[in-house]
Amino acid sequence: MATLTIRDLDDEVKARLRVRAAHNGRSMEAEVRAILRAALTGPTPRRGLGGQIQQYFVDLDDDVEIPLPPRTELPRAADFSS
């Protein structure tokens, strides 16, 4: 088993950890182990928005074409004078 030292822990965080450990009937060290175990062995984090959008459209055929609307005005330079 490895040993981990945590330096510069805020007093407020330490106090909340002590209360949480007492509430769960554990030592502070056992509470930290439980927190780390839960955080690192839980379900894989959800994908970001781009991954979710891709998953939504993954079953579409490759030959799907989305018609682009016609451009009604010519492109113009951005105005940064404001």
TrEMBL record:
Q: Point out the signal peptide segment.
A: none
Q: Which InterPro entries match?
A: Arc_rbn_hlx_hlx (IPR013321), FitA-like_RHH (IPR053853), Ribbon_hlx_hlx (IPR010985)
| A Pfam family the protein falls into | FitA-like_RHH
Q: Which domain of life is it from?
A: Bacteria
Instruction: Describe the location of the Antitoxin FitA-like ribbon-helix-helix domain by residue ranges.
Output: 2-40
A single GO BP term for this record reads: regulation of DNA-templated transcription
Query: What's the name of the protein?
Result: Antitoxin FitA-like ribbon-helix-helix domain-containing protein
